[in-house]
Amino acid sequence: MLHLLYILAFTILAVIAVANLIRNLIMFSFDRERPYPARSSQMGNQGDFGYFASKRQFAPHPELLDNAGNLIKEPLLVMRSINVDDAREHLDALYEASPGHKSENSEEA
Asked: Where are its TM segments located (predicted)?
């Protein structure tokens, strides 16, 4: 009998938890669609730092600006794949061009 009471209690708790989860997901989706008014902060007019920040940027990060102060629109990091031999050649060329590098011929003499 006690086993049935435990099963019933945990079933009720599970139903409440799932219902609460579904309700929170629905309310969260409605909150995302609702526009929030811009509020004035103590830091002046630097933007909304809340959970749903406005899409306009008042002061972008300095790394996102070029020398003229314009916003950079291209990606900041572009990676291309190269094979191992090309990478080895690039590393060898960098090593040989370094100021502390001594050629093999001068070491043998």
From this structure: 6-26
